[in-house]
C-alpha cells in the first residue's frame, strides 16, 4: 500500500517513477516507514521493568541527552534532537536506566509533535513508576521549519514538562545544576 502511494506521489510531483534511480524507491520508503512508524503497531509501552531499590533513594535520577528521531505529523518531515529525562523515585521504586531511551524511541516512532513527545514520556513514567516527580526537556531541530518558508537553520525548539516535585523552584534549580554538571 505504501509502495503504491509513494509511486503516486512521485508521479504527482512530476517525476517518472520508472526511471532507474527511482524504481526501487517506493519499496525502500515502505520499509523505512515500517521502521520509523513502528510504534503505531503497539500503542502501549510495555518494554520495562520496575525494581525495588535497596535504599530509600530520593535523589534526582537523570539521563541526559538521549538522541531521538521523529516525524512531524503536520508535514511528515523529520524532527530530531535530544531528550533529557529526570525523575525522583518514591518508595524505592526505580526503572532500569536502559528503558528510558527505549521509552524515548517508543514515543518518537510515529507521526507526532515535539510537545506530544515531551508530555508522553513524562506521563508514561508518572503512570508506570509513580515517582515523586518527572522532568522532561526536549531540544529539537525541525526540518519543516528549516527546509521551507522562513529558513531559520539551526534554530532549536525547546519543550519541557514537569510534574510533582519538579514543579517547585528548588527542585527545578537542583535539576538545572545537574544538567550543567553531567
Ligand atoms: Zn511540521
Describe the protein's architecture and organization.
It is a single chain. This protein has about 180 residues and is of the alpha+beta class. It folds into two domains: about 1-35, GTP Cyclohydrolase I, Chain A, domain 1; about 45-180, GTP Cyclohydrolase I, domain 2, CATH 3.30.1130.10. About 35% of the residues lie in helices and about 25% in strands. Helix 1 (about 1-10) packs across helix 2. It is elongated. The mean pLDDT is about 95. Bound molecules: zinc ion (ZN). Zinc ion (ZN) binds near residues 72, 77 and 142.
Compute the CA-based radius of gyration: 20 Å
Give the ordered list of helices and strands: HHEEEEHEHEHEH
The CATH class of the largest domain turns out to be: Alpha Beta
The CATH superfamily of the largest domain is known as GTP cyclohydrolase I, C-terminal domain/NADPH-dependent 7-cyano-7-deazaguanine reductase, N-terminal domain
Just name the CATH architecture of the largest domain. 2-Layer Sandwich
For the largest beta-sheet, the strand count, sense and barrel status come to: 5 strands, mixed
Note the total helix count.
6
Structural class: alpha+beta
The percentage of residues in β strands lies in: 25-35%
Kindly, what is the distance between the CA atoms of the first and last residues, rounded to a whole number of angstroms?
Answer: 46 Å
- What percent of the residues sit in helical stretches (DSSP H or I)? 25-40%
User: Major sheet: order of its strands?
Assistant: 5-2-3-6-7
Q: Count every beta strand, where a strand is a DSSP E run of 2 or more residues.
A: 7
Q: In CATH terms, what is the fold-level topology of the largest domain?
A: GTP Cyclohydrolase I, domain 2
Number of domains: 2
State the low-pLDDT regions, or none: none
Distinct compounds present: zinc ion
Amino acid at each position: 500500500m505504501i509502495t503504491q502511494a509513494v509511486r503516486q506521489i512521485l508521479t504527482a510531483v512530476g517525476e517518472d517513477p520508472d526511471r532507474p534511480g527511482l524504481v526501487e524507491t517506493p519499496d525502500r520508503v515502505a520499509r523505512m516507514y515500517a521502521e520509523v512508524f513502528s510504534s503505531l503497531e503497539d500503542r502501549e509501552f510495555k518494554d520495562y521493568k520496575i525494581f525495588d531499590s535497596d535504599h530509600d533513594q530520593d535523589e534526582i535520577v537523570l539521563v541526559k541527552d538521549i538522541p531521538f528521531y521523529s516525524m512531524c505529523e503536520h508535514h511528515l518531515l523529520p524532527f530530531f534532537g535530544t531528550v533529557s529525562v529526570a525523575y525522583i523515585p518514591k518508595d524505592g521504586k526505580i526503572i532500569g536506566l536502559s528503558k528510558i531511551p527505549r521509552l524515548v524511541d517508543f514515543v518518537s516512532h510515529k507521526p507526532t509533535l515535539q510537545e506530544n513527545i515531551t508530555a508522553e514520556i513524562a506521563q508514561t513514567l508518572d503512570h508506570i513508576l509513580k515517582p515523586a516527580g518527572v522532568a522532561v526537556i526536549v531540544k529539537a531541530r525541525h526540518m519543516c521549519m528549516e527546509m521551507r518558508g522562513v529558513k531559520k537553520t539551526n534554530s532549536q525548539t525547546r519543550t519541557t514538562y514537569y510534574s510533582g516535585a519538579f514543579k517547585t523552584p528548588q527542585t527545578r534549580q537542583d535539576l538545572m545544576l545537574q544538567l550543567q554538571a553531567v
